[in-house]
Amino acid sequence: xxxxxxxxxxxxxxxxxxxxxxxxxxxxxxxxxxxxxxxxxxxxxxxxxxxxxxxxxxxxxxxxxxxxxxxxxxxxxxxxxxxxxxxxxxxxxxxxxxxxxxxxxxxxxxxxxxxxxxxxxxxxxxxxxxxxxxxxxxxxxxxxxxxxxxxxxxxxxxxxxxxxxxxxxxxxxxxxxxxxxxxxxxxxxxxxxxxxxxxxxxxxxxxxxxxxxxxxxxxxxxxxxxxxxxxxxxxxxxxxxxxxxxxxxxxxxxxxxxxxxxxxxxxxxxxxxxxxxx
Length: 278
Description:
Layout: E1 9-14, H1 21-25, E2 31-35, H2 45-57, E3 65-68, H3 75-85, E4 93-96, H4 102-112, E5 118-123, H5 126-130, H6 132-136, E6 142-147, H7 149-156, H8 166-178, E7 182-185, H9 194-207, E8 211-214, H10 220-226, H11 231-247, E9 252-254, E10 257-259, H12 261-276
Parallel strand pairs: 1-2, 1-8, 2-3, 3-4, 4-5, 5-6, 6-7, 7-8
Antiparallel strand pairs: 9-10
């Protein structure tokens, strides 16, 4: 299994628009998700499946492309997995939509076997969120959890905006961190509102998300810029690590603040995030 790509942004592109695949990658985004689910009409599913898998079969190693299949356990999802299993395509990851039970990921592993790529589970319902902690136990190749905020808001009967979804976002991040998984926030749907995109991305990062999804190449740079540590964050992280190493395990202060184990761990995460982007 390949290691997960460093990711700040995940850009979706419809599976029946192959002319957009390379354009999406050329945006500089960390990962591109070729979508066989929501972005494709039922009448175009078969065509999109063939286009996406053919395109993935022609990609060199280290490519950024992954695939959102239809929900495992459905006829469309089964067809996606069987076509993938008998092809040369090697997506870097699969997004598992409508995730509510580990039976879905078990089915993927059963069909794809050792060729199963990294999985990103997409939480789109109250049940999926409520049972997430339990269903992630022994979840195999799951590497990240994504928040499907719009579908969740419909299921929960709440408004699709920041405050009504704050609890769901916080719960998802808490569970993801408990399982040492990355977390991806829902796309910002107004592609013309860059200020709103930047503001929501900053809030998502502050809450603990490690990446945010996008639906247009113009959203990529504004999102990825927000997930790069600032110069002041980098400088403080280096100072914390240096002080901790020099102290020999004794209590130490940096800029008048006590440096303890959680502070050191946070500093190491910042520097690790920085080195992963190089």
